[in-house]
Amino acid sequence: MYNARLMRIIILIALLCPVCPAQSVGIRVVDMKGQAIAKQPIRVSFSAEKLAKAADAVTLETDAKGEASFNLPEPAPPQLEVRVSLREGRWLCNCVLMTDTNTVLHQGVVQPAPHETAVPKSTPEAQPGQIVFVARPMGFFERLFYPLIKE
User: Fold this and answer.
1) Domain of residue 95, CATH code
2) Is 5 a member of any domain?
3) Is 1 among the domain residues?
4) Is 13 within the bounds of a domain?
5) β-strand 130-137 against 109-111: which pairing, if any?
6) Residue 3 forms beta bridges with which residues?
7) What are 59-95's pLDDT values in tens digits?
8) Of these four, 2, 56, 68, 117, which has the most CB atoms within 10 Å of its CB?
9) Comparing C-alpha atoms, which of 107, 98, 148, 151 is closest to residue 127?
10) Which is more confidently placed, 123 or 31?
């Protein structure tokens, strides 16, 4: 009797989950060794005509663990644009990501570092509801010539 009642409650919660308010999305910013990159500004934009009146973007900052999180508005937008602004002249990162919201919520997304010259010591994995940005430090010559090649 007790097990049947518990099972009914679990099934009811599972059926109501798609209408649960405010799904949370986490963002992590790490280097190629998997170490956190703290205090980095992040801007999240939502792409949906319905949300034009709502907040156009959310501004966040990574904590000491390189993490930040936000709640999706209701109804959830079909796509997200996430932009991480790493310190110029120090890090290389594919820091802009446009992705499908369902992909983030159900699988998670990893945005790898550009032109990885070495195999990362640990490949970060994204959990469902998480976006991971991987950055790599600039090499000596990249830092040397960076002022000449930046716009």
Assistant:
1) 2.60.40.1120
2) no
3) no
4) no
5) parallel
6) none
7) 999 999 999 999 998 888 889 999 999 876 688 788 8
8) 68
9) 107
10) 31
